[in-house]
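RETRY 2/3 - previous attempt timed out on the joint model. Re-submitting the same 226-residue input unchanged.
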Amino acid sequence: EVQLVESGGGVVQPGGSLRLSCSASGFTFDTYAMHWVRQAPGQGLECVSAINAIGATTYYADSVKGRFTISRDNSKSTLFLQMSSVGDEDTAVYYCVRLGMPGGLDSWGQGTLVIVSS
Amino acid sequence: EIVMTQSPATLSVSPGERATLSCRSSQSVSSSRLAWFQQKRGQAPRLLFYGASTRATGIPARFSGSGSGTEFSLTISTLQSEDFAVYYCQQYNNWPWTFGQGTKVEIK
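RETRY 2/3 succeeded.
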């Protein structure tokens, strides 16, 4: 069974930093691209960042480019999102998501809540 | 950036009835790289369809997806109580991948 478990969320002050982690199990982690998708309270979904299977290619939404860094440790089946210079607009539930082989974001973690507040 | 527009925002339907949700993209989505998700309150989204019309694993046959180019739709043939939720379309043709704003299917 595919499992994605996020951690690292919490309250962070504006301008601060936070690192999210996602521990993956139940599949061959190093053969799948991975994504971070966020959802602000009561709002829709936003693709924040993506990374290919070997970590060589990364993508960022304009809203986080230059502030967030996605990475992965395939030896530990773990995905990361380093967040810096956070602002109110970054308050959201952050989901770790697997990109399925035939297509589509097919497996989602339960999400970790990030609250930016002073 | 491709803008995805869903309609209606809210759909009020009685159990047992048919529901049709629409999704339009601002640019053509090639190879039908269009997905649909269902999200229930307090839960993560669940993939329903990819490639516009290919059901994801475990999705019941009462759900169907169709469309191409810039016009797509999701149909639930006979609504069950567990189908009342918010539905999102998403294009994964061009980065940034973008979602529609969602259609809430509520009990009439």
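The first strand of chain A starts at residue 3 and ends at 7. Closing ticket.
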